[in-house]
UniProtKB/TrEMBL annotation:
One example GO MF annotation: 5'-3' DNA exonuclease activity
SMART domains hit by this protein: POLIIIAc (SM00481)
CDD domains in the record: PHP_HisPPase_AMP (cd07438)
Top-level taxon of origin: Bacteria
Gene3D superfamilies: 1.10.150.650, Metal-dependent hydrolases
Segments traversing the membrane: none
SUPFAM superfamilies in the cross-refs: PHP domain-like
Residues in Polymerase/histidinol phosphatase N-terminal domain copies: 3-68
Protein name as catalogued: Putative metal-dependent phosphoesterase, PHP family
Length: 277
């Protein structure tokens, strides 16, 4: 069974609509899919309706950018459907989208101060007006603005630590985000720990409250070694393991459903959420 528990759509910084995601899932034989857009669950209802028609089981989710000791930490939250519409969750997500959009605006100003002629309006054309504008939108807008003359690795470096447009989102404390997910009936999962490049921080984060760990992930150098490393950490420190493609669109190097996520990951997650597929 093909499982993908980390997917983004046009509702945040993905490039495909919810309907197109479901079509791609069917094409790739994905039977269980979690929608985890950044700071929004707006696509979940449509995904569940389409999933029923196409025999794709949907797990509602969200990805939150949080802060811990001055560093960005990504956190996944998975929910039963009735918890997704929790008013406290939706109110906080709206605030976070506004804060992230303001930060993106500051990133564009940094690019402009360095000589780039990209305009904020060009970024807004790419982004969903109801979602958070993010560095992903800016990167795509910049690539289009420069007519593809700047290669993707060069663009990416502008937004990495010490890059001219790097501004970490530090408005949402990690602990607060974990508490929010629990208070609204969900289960938190620390996302792509290998990108933190600090396993001591990973174990410290996992010690805050019981949570899962995303073990099976594609955007890592030495993928197999890191997967084994985080399997070992999860056995000691996490309550469950998950995995997914972190799919943002067909342009990406990792395709939807490409990561081999064990069926046991879905079984454990469904058990915690009281889901029955």
């Amino acid at each position: 069974m093909t499982i993908d528990l980390h997917i983004h759509t046009l509702e945040s910084d993905g490039s495909l609509s919810v309907a197109a995601i479901i079509q791609e899932a069917v094409k790739q034989g994905v039977r269980i899919l979690a929608l985890t857009d950044h700071e929004t669950t707006n696509g979940v209802q449509e995904a569940m309706e389409l999933g029923q028609k196409h025999n794709v089981n949907i797990i509602p989710g969200v990805e939150l950018i949080t802060a811990f000791k001055g560093k960005e930490v990504h956190l996944l939250g998975y929910f039963p459907f009735e918890a997704v519409i929790h008013s406290d969750l939706q109110s906080r997500l709206k605030e976070l989208r506004q804060q992230r959009t303001y930060l993106a605006y500051e990133m564009v100003k940094r690019l402009q101060n360095d000589g780039f002629t990209l305009k904020w309006a060009e970024v807004e054309k790419i982004a969903n007006p109801e979602g958070a504008v993010s560095k992903g939108h800016i990167m795509r807008a910049l690539h289009e603005h420069e007519n593809g003359t700047i290669q993707w690795p060069t663009i990416a470096k502008l937004f990495q630590p010490y890059g001219i447009a790097y501004l970490p989102f530090l408005e949402h404390p990690f602990e607060e985000a974990v508490d929010l997910i629990y208070e609204c009936g969900g289960v938190p999962v620390l996302a792509h720990p290998g990108l933190l490049r600090d396993d001591r921080m990973v174990t410290e984060l996992l010690s805050y409250r019981p949570m899962g760990l995303e073990v099976y992930y594609g955007y890592w150098e030495q993928r197999e070694a890191l997967i084994q490393n985080y399997k070992n950490i999860a056995q000691e420190k996490a309550i469950l393991t998950t995995g997914g493609s972190d799919f943002h669109g067909l342009f990406g190097p990792v395709k939807l459903g490409e990561i081999d996520v064990p069926e046991q990951c879905s079984i454990e997650l469904q058990r915690f959420l009281n889901l029955d597929f």
